[in-house]
Amino acid sequence: MAWSLPAEGLSLLLSALQQAQLGLRAVLHILGLAPDIHGQPAWPFAYRIAGEMLALDAGHARRVAICIACLLLAGLSLLVSLAWRRGRPGLWVLAAAALLLAPWPEPHLLLAPAVPTSLHASPTGFTAQGIVRGQAVYQQQCVRCHGADGRGEGVDAAKLPMWPPTLTGSLLWKRLDGELFWRVRHGMRARDGSSTMPGFGPPLSDVQVWEVLNYLQANAAGQMLKESGGWSYPVRMPDAAVLCRHQAPRTLHSLGGQRLRLLTDTAPLQEDPRLVSVYTAVNATDPECQASAPELPDLRRALSLVLGVQPAQLAGHQLLVDRDGWLRARGQPGQAGWSASDLVCRSTATPLTLASTTPAGDGLDGLIRRMDDEPVRLLRGGFPH
Ligand code: HEC
User: Fold this and answer.
1) What InterPro entries does this protein's entry cite (predicted)?
2) Do 146 and 94 sit in the same domain of this protein?
3) What is the DSSP secondary-structure string of 1-51?
């Protein structure tokens, strides 16, 4: 059987399962069975649904989808049989058949070990200030093992019973945020129970741990770009306060729904109706939008992190942000116009060629079409975020 769920079906299935888990947690919370831990209701079970396996294994996803359909059919039959007496025997047979014939998935594929914060969402957002504060925590607490660039080559790494993993690639995107949080907060152990990474409790606060995770993600984005020239995993735009012409102060994220162009140079560029220009440098002329002065240094630090350049080399870079707030394309200093190779967010498998109908000119139309036509779907531990 070669049939597999289409991408939209899979993402629907994953969101439905995630919503079901969150709903269950909310109900248990009301009943007092999921008390707050680290500021959000705890997941009280030792297992959660393994969204990552559904995203990876098409056959498994198909079985789960059919199984859910069978369960719904069985439930519906039983419900109708309550009201429809004469149809009852037939409906019961139908319900039993649906349950018997359902292709039950293997439990070890369906479930993954959980921790109390598995379903926690980061309360800090992805702000430039948080990323920069997280960097300071990283340099104080983590660098000795994980190394300055996050590749696991800190000065103490060789003395550890286990080499620290590379935190610059896929690992961070495969895990659930709440599970990374738990591991940093409470430490990690080997199978034999011996400690592999120490936990970081007080004096670090919960917020500091979330912020160091934000920093790790920004750093990983920059390292990926340096290594492969692209982002195999999507990166969000760091948030910061901005001032836009004739408007009250607002945040970059609140500009969502529009395409943005983040500029790191002071030189004013001609305004472009296709995007909102946001200057992250002090700009004398009347800019469309500009990062607010107190947050400007942190925003520039965060942008240099995601671009993988030193802050001193940031000037002249540009970043294009799609309507959903994902960083999609990078312009490098001195570059004239845009081309397909600037599309660094490669979350889809489609090769990096722009349609031959791309009008000549600055190449921006083609890039924008790609950004709009291929929205990013971030799967975290298999679940959409
Ligand atoms: C004493 C050395 C040491 C220090 C300090 C340290 N780590 Fe680790 N870290 C490790 C080792 C070793 C592992 C692999 C552990 C394992 O897989 O059992 C690890 C694993 C991780 C992982 C991967 C978790 C996963 O899901 O696989 C993350 C994320 C992480 N560390 C973040 C941090 C952060 C953030 C800090 C600072 C607050 C930090 N570490 C400090 C040694 C260290």
Assistant:
1) Cyt_c-like_dom, Cyt_c-like_dom_sf, Cytochrome_c-type_DH
2) no
3) ------HHHHHHHHHHHHHHHHHHHHHHHHTTSS-EETTEE---SSEEE-H
Q: In angstroms, what is the span from residue 217 Cα to ligand 1's centroid?
A: 14
* Tens-digit pLDDT profile for residues 100-144: 999 999 999 999 999 999 999 999 999 999 999 999 999 999 999
153 Cα to the center of ligand 1, angstroms? 12
Note the pTM of the prediction, 2 decimals: 0.90
Atom from ligand 1 closest to the CA of residue 175: 26
Whichever domain contains 174, its CATH number is 1.10.760.10
Chain segment 62-107, per-residue pLDDT in tens: 999 999 999 999 999 999 999 999 999 999 999 999 999 999 999 9
Which residues contact ligand 1 via a Cβ below 6 A?
Answer: 141-142, 144-146, 156, 160, 162, 164-165, 167, 175, 180, 183-184, 188, 190, 196-198, 200, 212
Same domain for 241 and 357, yes or no, is: yes
Domain enclosing residue 25, as ranges: 7-113
